[in-house]
């Protein structure tokens, strides 16, 4: 039925191609593709692309320029494996599919399983979505439209509608006979059977490993897992991921509001959710949005502008604080030289506390019961490192400007600012999370405001009192 | 054989307990546990803990204070499910296990599968590790010692030694008969069979879904997957994760240097790697290390000190740049008021570019072929937003200090700094990655140096030329 293509990495560890399999698409492959495209060598092009896995083809389309991508899709789009589009960053997928004729996209969509088809269609513009749905076969259209009825990022959208369910009164023998007879209609891959009662409620789940080792006479009811976790179709996908991780699940049944089995979520769907959420959190902390990498420069600038604008307001606020002390600075210019040190150390120490807190909130390692303990710990860390850096900066500043009082002032300001950084670095994300605002997005602006204002105020204020 | 405990979330969606299952351990549960512990109510304590899943127990131990944790482990440690310790943050696990007697830890280790046992023992201090290994049964000891021979973070450490392999000349019927007969010795859960030749080389892989639907007369050789990906035991776990993601694998055979099958890696092991790597990258970008959350304040301060110290050097460098212009600042104090704006906007814009680049390098979306295109795009984004913010800040500064020249100077400095921020925000991580340094850790220090130095130099330098 199939050929074996065992890529035995261990045996040819010295062969550079062996590394290729882990590393994926090489730059040489890409360069060669571009050459073939440029020379209009379509047979060469076909040969290369047929050798790539869908993921590698997606990587190829991501790494070449926009014009080359359009040319490649125009020439070769019809022959691409539909999975290629699933493997792309959503923003890139959007760019590719929006440019292809809806008939072509409809063919791609029909080739996919229901959850994947939905994933593919979702990032597209709504009118293009409607175009494509219109062109689908009735069965596919209904599946997609039902999927679109579930809330965004819900279990209903994540689930696959293809699953295998059997009645609870069957035996292992009858089950295997059924699977053999129904082989054609079963999903390509499945790892669990769901046991249902006459009302199609899930009463059990059986990993296939239990079926293949059981005697034919054994009852299905006796083999089912002790505990199953049914997931309502409306559950948020982040909660689904948390449940999978907490309970070490490999698959779980999804039920409608009447408790009837309507789909299954498997761990590979959850891997995508976990990766995506972590990816998003990472980007948000840096003030960018998902898909940024695949937007054109002008569009990227627009998205990033808002974040920078908010930061500008913060920076202006800090300037206003400095302007209160213009007279003092005019007398002692050394203050202008040293003041960024206090603000920047506060910002960095605060970011450390904030990063830990934002991550711990995302993984639910912080809740009401230990929130105060975490804030207190960070305040202590701020005090300890504040004292250490007060000493270092105090000595450096005192020697540099031959002014022990200046050293004292910067030292005290450093302690004050690092304590505030620790306290606010944890309190801000915790309060934002409580208020229902994503702490990964908004925390750092508030924190910078605190560490800048406190830093400049403490340093320049103390100088105004003790030195001017 | 087992009871069914179907937690039917859909049916009782209004019941607050329904949410509990997705949300996990509630703060009320924790408070109740602490009360029982305080009142020495051991029966109450036992009742609560027996109702928690291992993951929830781990969460409980993470969220209570150190003293309470010690008390709980002392009273109740012997009865805890070994899986509880697997679910913990490694730093917390270390703290828990280091305090328990080695005999107790040895019992926990013997209860686990080989890959989990290794995970558990690895974060412990080496002398405690040796203590524990000494106390293990011979078979477990050998498995652990063999695992320790593989490099850290390698496939050999990640893999499970329990798997099911069958000869290639068997039929489906013979395979099922074998699985039924050998049921006792098989791993608890398995989803694939590995087909091996007489030298124990892997020649194929069969998902169980293919076995249960096939007729007894079918040949194993005909059912095996077209393509299998064998993983050398020495492959780095990040490469393993990339391979799983790229090829959408659910499991893969691990082979020794002679190509013989020695273990299997399943997708749930890979989920842990993916989560851990994303977690680590996130924390590193903020200048903290994994486990930070579970270290005491003093130890945390020590870890974070290094990062802050490097940042202090950067800040001092920026101060040196400012000190070149002391005379100019003395004449025009407005410069001291406005200069943090230019540096801070450069820092934020650079961080945006850097965040995207660091993430794209981690997911291999940037390589030689598109690196220059990415740098060029970011430079353009810097120029566009630089122009926008030059206008805004120029007008604000000009009006604030009634000095159009000051507005012009800050505007030009803003453009220069934001262009540098875009260019260096991408070039720095790309070069660090090329040099083999983790860009998530080191990039931001270098970037801040650039944006501070360029920002202060451009603003104060232009002012010195055109205004003083």
Question: What would you say about this model in short?
Answer:
The structure is a homodimer of 468-residue chains. Chain A has 468 residues and is mainly alpha-helical. The first copy, chain A, has helices at residues 16-23, 27-38, 42-51, 54-63, 66-76, 83-86, 90-99, 102-110, 114-121, 126-134, 138-149, 155-158, 172-181, 208-213, 220-223, 237-247, 267-285, 297-323, 326-331, 334-362, 368-400, 404-434, 439-466; strands spanning 5-7, 165-167, 192-196, 202-207, 227-229, 231-232, 251-255, 261-266.
Spatial order of the strands forming the largest sheet of chain A: 2-3-4
Distance between termini of chain A? 89 Å
CATH architecture of the largest domain in chain A: Orthogonal Bundle
Number of helices of chain A: 23
Protein architecture, described:
The structure is a homodimer of 468-residue chains. Chain A is mainly alpha-helical and 468 residues long. The first copy, chain A, folds into three domains: 16-155, MgtE N-terminal fold, CATH 1.25.60; 165-267, CBS-domain (Roll), CATH 3.10.580.10; 296-466, Tetracycline Repressor, domain 2. Helices cover 66% and strands 7% of the residues of chain A. Chain A has helices spanning 16-23, 27-38, 42-51, 54-63, 66-76, 83-86, 90-99, 102-110, 114-121, 126-134, 138-149, 155-158, 172-181, 208-213, 220-223, 237-247, 267-285, 297-323, 326-331, 334-362, 368-400, 404-434, 439-466; strands at residues 5-7, 165-167, 192-196, 202-207, 227-229, 231-232, 251-255, 261-266. In chain A, the strands form two sheets. In chain A, strands 2-3-4 form a three-stranded mixed beta sheet. A three-stranded mixed beta sheet of chain A has the order 6-7-8. In chain A, strand 7 and strand 8 (261-266) form a beta hairpin. Chain A is globular and about 90 Å long. Chain A starts with a strand and ends with a helix. In chain A, 49% of the residues are buried. The model of chain A is unreliable at 1-22 (pLDDT under 50). Chains A and B meet through strand 1, helix 1, helix 2, helix 4 and helix 13 of A and strand 1, helix 1, helix 2, helix 4 and helix 13 of B.
């Amino acid at each position: 039925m199939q050929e074996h293509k065992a890529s035995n990495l261990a045996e040819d560890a010295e062969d550079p191609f062996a590394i290729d399999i882990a590393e994926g698409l090489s730059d040489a492959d890409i360069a060669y593709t571009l050459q073939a495209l440029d020379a209009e060598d379509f047979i060469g092009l076909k040969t290369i692309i047929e050798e790539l896995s869908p993921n590698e083809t997606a990587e190829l389309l991501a790494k070449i320029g926009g014009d080359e991508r359009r040319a490649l899709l125009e020439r070769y789009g019809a022959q691409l494996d539909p999975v290629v589009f699933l493997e792309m960053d959503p923003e890139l997928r959007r760019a590719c599919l929006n440019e292809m004729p809806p008939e072509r996209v409809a063919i791609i969509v029909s080739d996919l399983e229901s959850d994947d088809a939905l994933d593919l269609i979702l990032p597209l513009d709504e009118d293009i979505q409607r175009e494509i749905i219109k062109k689908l076969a009735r069965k596919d259209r209904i599946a997609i439209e039902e999927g679109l009825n579930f809330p965004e990022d819900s279990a209903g959208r994540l689930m696959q509608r293809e699953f295998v369910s059997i009645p609870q009164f069957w035996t292992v023998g009858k089950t295997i006979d059924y699977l053999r007879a129904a082989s054609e209609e079963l999903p390509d891959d499945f790892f669990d059977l769901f046991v249902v009662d006459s009302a199609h409620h899930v009463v059990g789940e059986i990993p296939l490993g239990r079926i293949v080792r059981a005697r034919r006479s054994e009852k299905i009811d006796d083999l089912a897992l002790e505990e199953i976790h049914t997931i309502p179709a409306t559950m948020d996908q982040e909660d689904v991921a948390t449940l999978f991780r907490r309970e070490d699940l490999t698959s779980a049944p999804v039920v409608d509001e009447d408790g009837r089995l309507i789909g299954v979520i498997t761990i590979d769907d959850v891997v995508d959710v976990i990766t995506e959420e972590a990816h998003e959190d990472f980007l948000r902390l840096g003030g960018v949005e998902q898909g940024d990498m695949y937007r054109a420069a002008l569009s990227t600038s627009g998205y990033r502008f808002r974040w920078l604008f908010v930061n500008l307001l913060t920076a202006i606020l800090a300037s206003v604080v400095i302007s209160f002390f213009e007279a003092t600075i005019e007398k002692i210019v050394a203050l202008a030289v040293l003041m960024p040190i206090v603000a920047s150390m506060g910002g960095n120490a605060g970011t450390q506390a904030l990063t830990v807190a934002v991550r711990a909130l995302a993984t639910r390692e912080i809740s009401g019961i230990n929130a105060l303990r975490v804030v207190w710990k960070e305040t202590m860390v701020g005090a300890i490192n504040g004292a250490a850096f007060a000493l270092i900066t105090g000595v450096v500043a005192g020697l540099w400007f031959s002014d022990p009082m200046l050293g004292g002032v910067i030292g005290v300001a450093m302690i004050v600012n690092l304590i505030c950084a620790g306290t606010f670095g944890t309190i801000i994300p915790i309060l934002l999370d409580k208020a229902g605002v994503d702490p990964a997005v908004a925390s750092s602006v508030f924190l910078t405001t605190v560490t800048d204002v406190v830093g400049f105020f403490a340093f320049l204020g103390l100088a105004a009192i003790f030195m001017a």
